[in-house]
Design brief:
about 180 residues; alpha+beta; about 15% strand; globular
Amino acid sequence: MSTRSSPSKDPKKESPPKSQGITKNPSMELCRFTDPEIDRLRHCFPECTIFIPFDSSMKSDCISDVWITFPAIPFHIGFTYPFPFLTQSFFTLTGLCYIQAMSMVWRVLYTLEHMVERKGIDISLSELSQLYNLVSHGSHRFLFKSKPRQAHPIVKTTKNDSNWRNQFFFVRRDSILNGSHLPKK
């Protein structure tokens, strides 16, 4: 069963995530993903996962040695944690935090993972880089842009999601697989 954080006697270990101050419009990126919404995603994580309770003052650019920020979008579209190999390899290679990937990146990765799993098509990061450029969309957010003079390789993944920036939550790093090795900034 996944649990909420419990008070600790070591204040350093339980220090809350702190904003880096890098978002363009911080008021647009305050957390609006509540405890009942987090509860609906618990099945996407291992049972021992510890979630931080909802706090409306948290911003999406918050970092911590103890907590990691997860966007809600990958779990809404069908991902579970730990992420499949291609997806985790992408984040390992780029050094991006999960929250830095815009919705479109998650949809493309999910589609590719689906092709790998269901159709037995082997897709590498090298092939992904031949299809897309990874570009910044401001506020340290990234998306995939089709290569020049190429049609969009995977259609209907560029859909704009409203409010995706403030749908995020925090998980205790040491409660998930390889959590201590995930990017912190």
